[in-house]
């Protein structure tokens, strides 16, 4: 049950069964076509990323970076989402779909939409970004563009640096078709023996450890690059002496890399996960990308040997795998990038004296502190807080969840230092964090060796909440210091992910976290929290009650609004509750970065719903939930998106923000995001997202992230002047 103390949680204690009956009755009155397809919505999100690459007003190297992000996103989409759909179809499992369409139709539509986006992606590179880079002195050229001198230089590089590590693999009766690893770039080569006239096939993997773009020549700000696969292709004669090269084409395979662990049936989660990670390397093929000039004979051979259907073939212009454009980030050309931004130390955490060290515990005792990353520094807030706790002799215990962190993490180092200093340290490491499983297993073992108590959460659930709890002895009593965040404890991503974190010494929050960590590390089943909403036990129902309160308030003529910022809006129950609120006259603002199954174009249902999406230099990652609550606004921040997995299969936590100044800051951010003068994408009819970034005169609209950056800088200057 949700806690019934209204003064803390703001949640009533209506009977659960009665509430469910009301929900069911309202759902039966809503139209059947009220959800957008989640997979097509995800592709629409990646299209928005692509539209940033298409924007000539953005710095050129940033446009190239968005092309690389698009490619990386799409790879993960195929490895997880498409792979999951295919696995369910093959095994006869039910396909989770909220649009009532046949599974094979869903796959067909996805393939068509994905192929169109990939072709558009390739065209943006060849027709827009590549020429723009060339105009700025950064050329990505082909072999035909090189001078004789440049070819000689590159041949020397090929002979000394590339040739020794290449491993051509022949296919013949004595050599079976080689294993093709997922996402590797390969050359399919057909050759003819000059003596016998016999045709052969060979596969050559482009070495992934070598620079994808080979520097040809550099002169000041001017630099020329040649794709590594072209350099190899033009020198195949050295690899197959005495052979005639008939055809050579680039191809790339995507495999199913989703991990499925039946936790109830395994005695050792780590061992089972390591075995599953090994299996991931050999997952079934789900996509074959080939260059558009590949001949039918080569393609037919690949289809047969890889056991993949022609429906899964994506014929695209070269070069394949534009993730290689990430390497351009190493170029020192600040004139082709966003202006540099150095995160500022949050005002309460600034030291009283220049070159002094701030006492973060004293600052948090004084007031709750809300920190907004990356505008405000993660290092001088979260990292410094943990480091101070690790060395403080009055700190007795530290408890933290780790979902994703970075290599050489100061977070992990601080936890190890705390354990070595004799403190009780608990780290809940989520080893099932997708694509970070191996890294997290490594962190867990490192922490265990240092004496940290490491646990892996609850069976069947991922621990996704972002929690840090410090227990300190002060004047003979214990005091709790807590941090609840919307993003991972990862210093690297904190510089590019937009997130909020709340620091508080509130006793009730401390008691809530003590109970929650006891549940995560032991066998306690605690169902009552005062300042937190926790999944999977009561977050869903808590949000449904908050939404329904706004509906009832609107009907009673009281102030009512709902404002939700998430990465994904998919859950049908939450969406239906928003529809019901809209029908009652509640103004509903939804700010979503990625997937959105909610429709804004249903007459009589979503008339009061506005949906916006904002993408830019930073990845919008925070989750915020705001409610008018009859004129006394309630705002929550935390880790949960509105998806089935977050509400039902993960441990998530939202904390209510109490300070009026913090409530104002968060609601003001919504005001800016939803304003028509702010650059954003608007969700329209049939799930189409339309970008609004220029006014009628062609002047750029307000950039929310730039304005937020300037606002944080002004706050810091105001304090300095005082």
TrEMBL record:
<dbReference type="InterPro" id="IPR024953">
    <property type="entry name" value="PP_kinase_middle"/>
</dbReference>
<feature type="binding site">
    <location>
        <position position="73"/>
    </location>
    <ligand>
        <name>ATP</name>
    </ligand>
</feature>
<dbReference type="Pfam" id="PF02503">
    <property type="entry name" value="PP_kinase"/>
</dbReference>
<feature type="domain" description="Polyphosphate kinase N-terminal">
    <location>
        <begin position="35"/>
        <end position="140"/>
    </location>
</feature>
<keyword id="KW-0067">ATP-binding</keyword>
<feature type="domain" description="Polyphosphate kinase C-terminal">
    <location>
        <begin position="360"/>
        <end position="524"/>
    </location>
</feature>
<keyword id="KW-0808">Transferase</keyword>
<dbReference type="Pfam" id="PF13090">
    <property type="entry name" value="PP_kinase_C"/>
</dbReference>
<dbReference type="InterPro" id="IPR025200">
    <property type="entry name" value="PPK_C_dom2"/>
</dbReference>
<feature type="binding site">
    <location>
        <position position="593"/>
    </location>
    <ligand>
        <name>ATP</name>
    </ligand>
</feature>
<dbReference type="Pfam" id="PF17941">
    <property type="entry name" value="PP_kinase_C_1"/>
</dbReference>
<feature type="active site" description="Phosphohistidine intermediate">
    <location>
        <position position="464"/>
    </location>
</feature>
<dbReference type="GO" id="GO:0046872">
    <property type="term" value="F:metal ion binding"/>
</dbReference>
<keyword id="KW-0597">Phosphoprotein</keyword>
<feature type="binding site">
    <location>
        <position position="404"/>
    </location>
    <ligand>
        <name>Mg(2+)</name>
    </ligand>
</feature>
<dbReference type="InterPro" id="IPR025198">
    <property type="entry name" value="PPK_N_dom"/>
</dbReference>
<dbReference type="GO" id="GO:0009358">
    <property type="term" value="C:polyphosphate kinase complex"/>
</dbReference>
<dbReference type="GO" id="GO:0008976">
    <property type="term" value="F:polyphosphate kinase activity"/>
</dbReference>
<keyword id="KW-0460">Magnesium</keyword>
<dbReference type="GO" id="GO:0006799">
    <property type="term" value="P:polyphosphate biosynthetic process"/>
</dbReference>
<feature type="binding site">
    <location>
        <position position="621"/>
    </location>
    <ligand>
        <name>ATP</name>
    </ligand>
</feature>
<protein>
    <recommendedName>
        <fullName>Polyphosphate kinase</fullName>
        <ecNumber>2.7.4.1</ecNumber>
    </recommendedName>
</protein>
<dbReference type="GO" id="GO:0005524">
    <property type="term" value="F:ATP binding"/>
</dbReference>
<feature type="binding site">
    <location>
        <position position="434"/>
    </location>
    <ligand>
        <name>Mg(2+)</name>
    </ligand>
</feature>
<keyword id="KW-0418">Kinase</keyword>
<dbReference type="InterPro" id="IPR041108">
    <property type="entry name" value="PP_kinase_C_1"/>
</dbReference>
<keyword id="KW-0479">Metal-binding</keyword>
<dbReference type="InterPro" id="IPR036830">
    <property type="entry name" value="PP_kinase_middle_dom_sf"/>
</dbReference>
<keyword id="KW-0547">Nucleotide-binding</keyword>
<feature type="domain" description="Polyphosphate kinase C-terminal">
    <location>
        <begin position="532"/>
        <end position="693"/>
    </location>
</feature>
<feature type="binding site">
    <location>
        <position position="497"/>
    </location>
    <ligand>
        <name>ATP</name>
    </ligand>
</feature>
<comment type="function">
    <text>Catalyzes the reversible transfer of the terminal phosphate of ATP to form a long-chain polyphosphate (polyP).</text>
</comment>
<feature type="domain" description="Polyphosphate kinase middle">
    <location>
        <begin position="149"/>
        <end position="328"/>
    </location>
</feature>
<dbReference type="InterPro" id="IPR036832">
    <property type="entry name" value="PPK_N_dom_sf"/>
</dbReference>
<dbReference type="Pfam" id="PF13089">
    <property type="entry name" value="PP_kinase_N"/>
</dbReference>
<dbReference type="InterPro" id="IPR003414">
    <property type="entry name" value="PP_kinase"/>
</dbReference>
<comment type="similarity">
    <text>Belongs to the polyphosphate kinase 1 (PPK1) family.</text>
</comment>
């Amino acid at each position: 049950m949700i806690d019934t103390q209204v003064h803390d949680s703001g949640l009533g204690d209506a009977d659960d069964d009665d509430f469910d009956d009301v929900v069911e009755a309202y759902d039966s009155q809503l139209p059947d076509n009220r959800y957008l397809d989640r997979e097509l919505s995800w592709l629409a999100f990646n299209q928005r990323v692509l539209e940033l690459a298409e924007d000539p007003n953005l710095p050129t190297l940033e446009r190239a970076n968005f092309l690389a992000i698009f490619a990386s996103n799409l790879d993960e989409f195929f490895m997880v989402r498409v792979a999951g759909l295919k696995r369910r179809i093959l095994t006869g499992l039910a396909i989770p779909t909220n649009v009532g369409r046949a599974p094979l139709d869903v796959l067909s539509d996805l393939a068509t939409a994905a192929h169109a986006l990939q072709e558009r992606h390739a065209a943006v590179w060849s027709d827009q970004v590549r020429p723009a880079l060339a105009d700025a002195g950064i050329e990505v050229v082909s072999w035909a563009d090189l001078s004789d001198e440049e070819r000689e230089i590159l041949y020397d590089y090929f002979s000394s640096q590339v040739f020794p590590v290449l491993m051509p693999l022949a296919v013949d009766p004595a050599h079976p078709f080689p294993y093709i690893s997922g996402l590797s770039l390969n050359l399919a080569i057909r050759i003819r023996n000059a003596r016998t006239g016999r045709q052969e096939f060979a596969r050559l993997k482009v070495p992934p450890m070598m620079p994808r773009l080979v520097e040809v020549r550099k002169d000041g700000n001017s630099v020329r690059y040649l794709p590594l696969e072209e350099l190899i292709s033009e020198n195949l004669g050295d690899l197959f002496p005495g052979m005639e090269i008939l055809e050579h084409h680039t191809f790339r395979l995507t495999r199913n890399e989703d991990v499925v662990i039946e936790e109830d049936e395994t005695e050792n989660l780590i061992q089972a996960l390591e075995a599953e990670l090994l299996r991931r390397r050999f997952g079934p093929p789900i996509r074959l990308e080939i260059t558009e000039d590949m001949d039918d004979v080569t393609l037919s051979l690949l289809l047969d040997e890889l056991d993949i259907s022609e429906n899964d073939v994506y014929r695209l212009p070269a070069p394949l795998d534009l993730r290689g454009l990430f390497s351009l980030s190493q170029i020192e050309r600040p004139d082709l990038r966003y202006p540099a931004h150095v995160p500022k130390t949050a005002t309460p955490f600034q030291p009283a004296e220049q070159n002094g060290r701030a006492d973060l515990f004293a600052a948090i005792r004084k007031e709750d502190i809300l920190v907004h990353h990356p505008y405000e520094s993660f290092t001088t807030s979260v990292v410094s807080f943990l480091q101070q706790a690790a060395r403080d002799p009055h700190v007795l215990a530290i408890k933290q969840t780790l979902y994703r962190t970075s290599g050489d993490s100061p977070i992990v180092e601080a936890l190890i230092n705390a354990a070595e200093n004799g403190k009780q340290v608990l780290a809940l490491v989520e080893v099932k964090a997708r694509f970070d499983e191996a890294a997290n297993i490594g962190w867990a073992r490192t922490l265990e060796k240092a004496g940290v108590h490491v646990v892996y959460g609850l069976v069947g659930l991922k621990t996704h909440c972002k929690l840090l709890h410090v227990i300190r002895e002060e004047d003979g009593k214990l005091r709790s210091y807590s941090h609840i965040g919307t993003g991972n404890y990862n210093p690297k991503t904190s510089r590019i992910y937009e997130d909020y974190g709340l620091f508080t010494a509130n006793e009730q929050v401390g008691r809530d976290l003590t109970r929650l960590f006891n549940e995560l590390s032991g066998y306690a089943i605690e169902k009552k929290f005062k300042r937190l909403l926790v999944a999977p036990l009561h977050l869903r129902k808590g949000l449904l009650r908050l939404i329904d309160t706004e509906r009832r308030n609107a009907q009673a003529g009281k102030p009512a609004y709902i404002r939700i910022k998430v990465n994904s809006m998919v859950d049908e129950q939450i969406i239906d509750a928003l529809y019901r609120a809209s029908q009652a006259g509640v103004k509903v603002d939804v700010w979503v970065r990625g997937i959105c199954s909610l429709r804004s174009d249903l007459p009589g249902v979503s008339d009061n719903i506005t949906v916006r999406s904002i993408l830019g230099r930073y990845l919008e990652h925070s989750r915020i939930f705001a409610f008018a609550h009859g004129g006394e606004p309630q705002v929550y921040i935390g880790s949960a998106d509105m998806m089935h997995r977050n509400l039902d299969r993960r441990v998530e936590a939202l904390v209510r923000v109490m300070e009026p100044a913090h409530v104002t800051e968060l609601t003001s951010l919504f005001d800016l995001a939803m304003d028509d003068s702010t650059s954003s994408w608007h969700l329209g009819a049939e799930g189409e997202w339309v970008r609004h970034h220029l006014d009628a005169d062609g002047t750029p609209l307000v950039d929310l992230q730039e304005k937020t950056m300037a606002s944080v800088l002004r706050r810091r200057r105001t304090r300095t002047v005082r």
